[in-house]
């Protein structure tokens, strides 16, 4: 906002709702549109002002749909992989000169904006399955009218919105059924639920994965501390892929993007070149310190995502792996607890920090568990799990117990209250 000289005011200011665009006085109410995020509670003062004064408002996905969705609407959806896929696919289209409109929920290391309205008929959007707004429990992606769908994975998540597995899967089933007959679904053949759901598709399906029944098959994945390399086979064509980003699971995401871009008519040489120059996304196995001790930051906030990250680190680092893990709200629900079994087996030590306070529905009987309970749950299948609810004590424990070649990884969607920065500073001294 500073870069674009947009005034902003931290906190809540109902009196500024109609004055935010001009310092010279109030704007005409008909020119004002308020975008309401999930963070706004029913008692939020700005929200109450908007309702009282009948000011036009939209949920975040409604606003995205209004301004970003184009004739050729690509949506990247899935329990995991959607941010990485939407970012890389947007980058490939940009590098190919197609000027797409796009939006993804991350910060690209290549310094492209996280959202852009282009001049072409292409749009690429990250399709989140989380609820659209406080008044609309439907998935965000239902607003994006996809003509092209990249579906990476389906595994029950967000138990705070989808209390049963079937309710979660139903959201994706409705998504695939919404693709028009002349549309395209690019789906991961390695995910059992995706394979089940795409049977409902009424358009062309292209599959990718590490299995022989896929149209785009990736193989020979090699992971080092410097990056990733692997092969993609499509029919009689073979392509060598190299990238700086970490995570052998990213081979799957990259192959999905390759398949979608290729099916949209982009030449393979341009796709390969874009993949090689792509630097990844902040908080996706982001290396915060590389020395005798390596520190990573990753947004993995569910047991399944944490498992994938830890398996990657275990494959390339020889020292101990210490994981500091904080789940999102949905993965603190009692219904999600069986998913923690054996998810941290690639970590030598697991630390649960003070958990961020979450808003709870007074009518919801399934209250989120606390840090002590989460520690007990993980300890059922892991020998070394600690609950340290004091940040200073947690950092002291890591510093006192670190050894050369150890790998420390922070896993979670919250910010860890500046602990990562403090740890990096201490380890550099």
Q: Regions with pLDDT < 50 over 5+ consecutive residues?
A: none
Profile the largest sheet.
Answer: 10 strands, mixed
Which secondary-structure class do the elements indicate? alpha/beta
The largest beta-sheet arranges its strands as 5-4-6-3-9-10-11-12-13-14
CATH superfamily of the largest domain: Mur-like, catalytic domain
Cα-atom radius of gyration: 22 Å
Discrete helix count: 11
Overall pLDDT level: 92
Q: How many beta-strand segments? A: 20
Q: Share of helix among residues?
A: 25-40%
Quickly give the CATH architecture of the largest domain. Answer: 3-Layer(aba) Sandwich
Q: Can you identify the CATH class of the largest domain?
A: Alpha Beta
Q: How far apart are the termini?
A: 35 Å
- Count of domains: 3
Which term fits the overall shape? globular
β-strand percent reads 15-25%
CATH topology of the largest domain: UDP-N-acetylmuramoyl-L-alanine:D-glutamate ligase
Pfam family, one: Mur_ligase_M
InterPro entries: Mur-like_cat_sf, Mur_ligase_C, Mur_ligase_C_dom_sf, Mur_ligase_cen, MurCDEF_pg_biosynth
GO molecular function: acid-amino acid ligase activity; ATP binding
Protein name: UDP-N-acetylmuramate:L-alanyl-gamma-D-glutamyl-meso-diaminopimelate ligase
Task: Describe the 3D structure.
This protein is α/β, with parallel strands linked by helices and 429 residues long. It folds into 3 domains: 14-55, no CATH class; 61-277, UDP-N-acetylmuramoyl-L-alanine:D-glutamate ligase; 286-428, Protein-Tyrosine Phosphatase, Chain A, CATH 3.90.190. It contains 11 helices and 20 strands. The protein has helices spanning 45-52, 60-68, 82-95, 165-177, 192-197, 250-263, 268-277, 303-316, 371-379, 391-401, 419-428; strands at 34-36, 57-59, 72-77, 101-103, 115-116, 122-127, 131-133, 136-139, 148-151, 184-188, 204-209, 216-224, 227-234, 237-243, 286-290, 294-298, 321-326, 349-352, 385-387, 407-412. The strands form 4 sheets. It has a 10-stranded mixed beta sheet. A 6-stranded mixed beta sheet has the order 15-16-20-17-18-19, with helices on both faces. α1 links the parallel β1 and β2 (57-59). It starts with 33 loop residues before the first strand and ends with a helix. The model has no long low-confidence stretch (mean pLDDT 92). It holds the Pfam family Mur_ligase_C. It comes from Candidatus Magasanikbacteria bacterium RIFOXYA1_FULL_40_8. GO terms for molecular function: acid-amino acid ligase activity; ATP binding.
């Amino acid at each position: 906002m500073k870069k674009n000289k947009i005034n902003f005011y931290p906190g809540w200011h109902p009196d500024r709702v109609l004055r935010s665009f001009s310092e010279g006085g109030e704007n005409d109410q008909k020119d004002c549109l308020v975008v309401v995020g999930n963070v706004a509670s029913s008692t939020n003062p700005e929200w109450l002002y908007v309702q009282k004064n009948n000011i036009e408002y939209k949920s975040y996905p409604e606003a995205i749909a209004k301004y970003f969705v184009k004739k050729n609407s690509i949506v990247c959806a899935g329990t995991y992989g959607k941010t990485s896929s939407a970012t890389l696919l947007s980058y490939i289209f940009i590098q190919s000169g197609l000027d797409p409109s796009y939006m993804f929920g991350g910060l690209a290391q290549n310094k492209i904006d996280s959202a852009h309205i282009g001049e072409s008929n292409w749009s690429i959007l990250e399709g989140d399955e989380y609820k659209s707004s406080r008044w609309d429990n439907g998935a965000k992606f239902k607003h994006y009218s996809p003509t092209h769908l990249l579906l990476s994975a389906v595994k029950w998540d967000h138990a705070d919105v989808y209390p049963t597995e079937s309710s979660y899967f139903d959201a994706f089933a409705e998504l695939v059924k919404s693709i028009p007959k002349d549309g395209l679904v690019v789906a991961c053949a390695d995910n059992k639920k995706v394979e089940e759901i795409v049977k409902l598709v009424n358009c062309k399906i292209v599959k990718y994965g590490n299995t022989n029944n896929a149209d785009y098959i990736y193989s020979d994945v090699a992971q080092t501390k410097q990056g990733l390399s692997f092969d993609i086979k499509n029919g009689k064509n073979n392509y060598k892929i190299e990238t700086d980003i970490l995570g052998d699971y990213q081979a799957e995401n990259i192959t999905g993007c390759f398949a979608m871009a290729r099916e949209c008519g982009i030449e393979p040489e341009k796709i390969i070149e874009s993949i090689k120059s792509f630097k990844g996304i902040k908080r996706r196995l982001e290396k915060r310190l590389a020395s005798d001790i390596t520190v990573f930051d990753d947004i993995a906030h569910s047991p399944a995502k944490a498992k994938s990250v830890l398996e990657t680190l275990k494959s390339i680092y020889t020292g101990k792996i210490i994981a500091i893990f904080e789940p999102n709200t949905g993965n603190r629900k009692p219904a999600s607890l069986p998913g923690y079994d054996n998810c941290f087996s690639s970590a030598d030590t697991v630390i649960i920090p003070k958990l961020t306070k979450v808003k709870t529905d007074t009518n919801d009987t399934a209250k989120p568990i606390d840090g002590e309970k989460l520690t007990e749950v993980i300890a059922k299948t892991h020998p070394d799990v600690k609950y340290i609810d004091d940040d200073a004590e947690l950092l002291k424990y890591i510093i006192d117990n670190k050894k050369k070649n150890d790998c420390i990884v922070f896993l979670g969607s919250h910010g860890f209250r500046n602990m990562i920065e403090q740890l990096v500073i201490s380890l550099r001294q």
